[in-house]
Design brief:
three-stranded antiparallel beta sheet, 194 residues, 35% strand, 2 domains, alpha+beta
Length: 194
């Protein structure tokens, strides 16, 4: 049932669109007269009914990081994606699986909506959650089981590195034991001989 509201301050009528149509046409239609708002409602309803919907499963990967690698006082690699907190190394990795709904409207516009869906990638704790598809540092890739598994393993490995670093830096004695016996924390790292 449509409800017509009038704002005496704005001197305008408005009607809230049904839930599905809001994704395509916005939440409300407006008109200066009752006739105008009813025509706007009819036009929005037609646009929604004429829009075509395509659904696909996607993975959104968001990476923000900061680091600088130098050799012989030359910067050989620098990454400064995301928020800059100064010096040091910083990493934020988020991966999420969504059902992406793309509405192709008759007026040429395209409207995307993302709904979370179950997946095997570990949850991320972040102030930027959920990721904003198409936002800075975000990449959207088509879903496949293999890709979901890859990103689940990547997030698990990243969490494991953070856990190991946390355990490693709990006290000075632990650090010295590990360093003095020549242990490697990560595969592929080598210690420089003196």
């Amino acid at each position: 049932m449509k409800v017509v509201k009038f704002s005496s301050r704005e001197k305008q009528f408005k009607i809230q669109l049904p839930t599905g149509a809001r994704d395509v046409c916005g939440e409300y239609v407006y008109g200066d007269t009752l006739d105008e708002v009813n025509k706007a409602y009819a036009a929005a309803s037609t646009m929604f009914l004429d829009a075509t919907l395509k659904e696909e499963k996607v993975i959104i990967i968001t990476f923000e990081g900061q680091c600088r690698i130098e050799e012989n006082e030359k910067i050989i690699f620098e990454c400064d994606r995301g928020y800059n907190v100064g010096e040091g190394v910083e990493l934020e990795l988020q991966c999420e699986v969504f059902i992406k709904q793309t509405w192709a409207c008759p007026d040429g516009r395209s409207v995307d909506r993302y709904d979370e869906t179950e997946h095997s990638i570990p949850e991320s704790a972040s102030y930027n959650w959920p990721p904003s598809p198409g936002g800075s540092g975000s990449v959207e890739v088509p879903w496949s089981e293999e890709r979901e598994q890859f990103f689940a393993e990547l997030v698990n490995a990243t969490q494991n590195i953070i856990r190991k670093l946390s355990e490693f830096t709990t006290d000075a004695k632990s650090i010295l034991k590990i360093v003095d016996r020549g242990a490697r924390l990560l595969p592929g790292t080598t210690r420089k001989k003196r």
